[in-house]
TrEMBL record:
Start and end residues of each Endoribonuclease L-PSP/chorismate mutase-like domain: 4-150
InterPro entries tied to this protein: Endoribo_LPSP/chorism_mut-like, RutC-like_sf
Taxonomic superkingdom: Bacteria
UniProt lineage: Bacteria, Bacillati, Actinomycetota, Actinomycetes, Micrococcales
Protein name: RidA family protein
Length: 152
């Protein structure tokens, strides 16, 4: 089953790629790798939530937010390479979680992104990962996700 068919089966649709908020592009190709810019949880141009995980945002909702960030990153990959069937492997995921100083569940939050990538790309979605707690993210987003993807 194709990646886009798997997305549809999950009830998800790739969104349009967000217009960058600064002097950068959504994704860059170098050799056979695509590097996405950090993707925040935009839905129709609006953040789905703001605040910190461990305060205004529960870890469970943070996981949903991370999934949306990954969906936005997949859209950036498709825009860069034209067809998700060209994806050979999700190489690396970096997830940033704006969280309270005492919150230590960043890996569980970023699992939202990792689990979506596994569901969409199967074995090719298995990746290395970092889950980093930070004080604040752009526009007060709770989560930001970036990908490195190998393609053919």
């Amino acid at each position: 089953m194709s990646a886009e068919a798997k997305l549809a089966e999950l009830g998800l649709e790739l969104p349009p790629v967000a217009t960058p908020a600064g002097a950068y592009v959504p994704a860059v190709i170098s050799g056979n790798l695509v590097f996405t810019a950090g993707q925040i949880p935009l839905v129709n141009g609006q953040l789905m939530a703001t605040g910190k995980v461990g305060a205004e945002i529960t870890p469970e909702y943070g996981k949903e937010i991370a999934q949306r960030c990954a969906l936005n990153a997949i859209a950036a990959v498709k825009a860069a390479i034209g067809d998700l069937e060209r994806v050979r492997r999700i190489v690396k995921v970096v997830g940033f979680v704006a969280s309270t100083p005492d919150f230590t569940g960043q890996p569980g939050v970023v699992n939202g992104a990792s689990e979506l990538l596994g569901a969409v790309f199967g074995e090719a979605g298995s990746h290395a990962r970092s889950a980093v707690g930070v004080a604040v993210l752009p526009l007060d987003a709770p989560v930001e996700v970036e990908l490195i993807v190998e393609f053919e």
